[in-house]
Amino acid sequence: MVTINRRNFYFFLLFFKFSVFFFFFFFFVVFFSFLGVNCLQITDFSVPLAAKVGEDRQLSCQYQLGSNETLYFLRWYKDGNEFFRYMPKETPAQRVYNVSGVRIKTLSSTSTNVVLTKVEASTSGLYRCEVSAEAPGFETADREAHFNVIGKSLAFMQTRV
């Protein structure tokens, strides 16, 4: 028969508590490491609030791919209509689509930035960036923001002091 004295019992109890603590600690560290570090995410998204008619403005969509992921595409939309696509495995990698009010400086646009040139009133709208990773996951992330163009026709709305 095994007898357990008080000292051994407390040692066993302490060992058991630490074992359970470290098990759950390890489990949560591993679990949460998969949530943000190892998946596609948009890290910086920038759409100007406003611009004057005729100006050029840059839209930015910086992303981070998870480990073992490669970029499938990055797309830009205005009011739900695709106007720019970047697919690194295609030739050419950039594609521009006709959308009312959207003119792009293709030479200044990249996999993370799109430059709108000579904006006009019809350039105003809701702009969305969508990024997708390759198979097998095809993870997708997107962000959107409003962009407004202020023109000379709105000058009468300004108050004089």
Describe it for me?
This is Ig-like domain-containing protein. InterPro entries: Ig-like_dom, Ig-like_dom_sf, Ig-like_fold, Ig_V-set. The chain crosses the membrane at residues 12-35. Keywords: Membrane, Transmembrane, Transmembrane helix. This protein has one helix at 6-36, and strands at residues 41-46, 50-52, 57-64, 71-78, 81-86, 94-96, 113-116, 125-133, 140-150. The protein has 161 residues and is an alpha+beta fold. The protein folds into two domains: 1-36; 41-154, Immunoglobulins (Immunoglobulin-like, Sandwich). The strands form two sheets. Strands 2-9-8-4-5-6 form a six-stranded mixed beta sheet, with no helix packed on it. β4 and β5 form a beta hairpin. It is elongated. 15% of the residues are buried. Residues 154-161 have low confidence and may be disordered.
